[in-house]
Design brief:
The protein has 237 residues and is mainly alpha-helical. The chain is built from ten helices and two strands. Strands 1-2 form a two-stranded antiparallel sheet.
Length: 237
């Protein structure tokens, strides 16, 4: 008689993540229009059969993602989305919780490395000059504008790489990581370290050296990912 294979039971994800996904399904069902007020925390607690703190955590997470607007003494409202399809899929398909955070950070790091190599292979004079300008902006902009300048550098790499799917995937991932975790944990590196990380990436792309571009981006993403995950662990600890 043939033996049955053992069943491996995966650990359940945090309850707030399940609630978040149920709310995302509800928001995107077509029953809720941008600007509509969603049920209250008390109503959602009764509908979903979970405790109120869990509902509150889920609402807060979707607020960080930009899907919900929480108005004091007024309620919570669906903000809608005007993003392109790929961006929206990544924005709304986010797996929340610690495991989801780790997976998202890892996926983003791997894709950034691929894009850096493609950018080096596809570089042209105009693309290199744009990337140079983005690097200069990182060096010279006011501190409060540095995160935006950093993002603009990576966006320029995505444009130069010439793959619209990878470009849009990374656009969504960067936005989720920034709004969903960086702003919540304060996981930021020093400006000098951040700028210095990008110089060898630019130089490798400008030289058309795909291997060096991938290696430089891998070093950059390794440090950035470790800082973010450390901040998440400290916050959850």
């Amino acid at each position: 008689m043939a033996e049955l294979a053992r069943i491996t039971v995966e650990p359940r994800e945090p309850l707030a993540a399940e609630v978040s996904r149920r709310l995302i399904d509800y928001l995107m069902s077509g029953e809720v229009q941008p600007g509509d007020r969603i049920p209250s925390e008390r109503q959602l607690t009764e509908m979903l059969g979970v405790n109120r703190p869990t509902v509150r955590e889920a609402i807060k997470s979707l607020g960080f993602l930009g899907l919900l607007e929480i108005r004091q003494s007024s309620g919570t409202y669906f903000r809608g989305t005007d993003s392109d399809v790929l961006y929206r899929l990544f924005e709304l398909g986010l797996v929340l919780g610690e495991r989801g955070a780790r997976d998202m950070v890892q996926a983003r790091a791997e894709l950034e490395v691929i894009v850096a190599g493609l950018a080096a292979q596809a570089r042209d004079e105009a693309g290199v000059e744009l990337l140079r300008a983005r690097l200069t902006a990182m060096r010279e902009c006011p501190d409060k504008e540095f995160p935006e300048a950093d993002t603009a550098f990576h966006a320029a790499l995505g444009d130069l790489a010439g793959n619209t799917v990878l470009r849009d995937m990374l656009k969504g991932m960067r936005a989720m990581i920034q709004r969903g975790w960086v702003e919540r944990t304060g996981a930021v590196r020093s400006r000098k370290v951040a700028y210095d990380d990008h110089v060898p990436i630019f130089e490798a792309v400008a030289d058309g050296d795909a291997e060096a571009a991938r290696a430089a981006m891998a070093r950059h993403m390794d440090g950035a990912s470790r800082r973010l995950m450390k901040a998440l662990e400290q916050r959850e600890g």
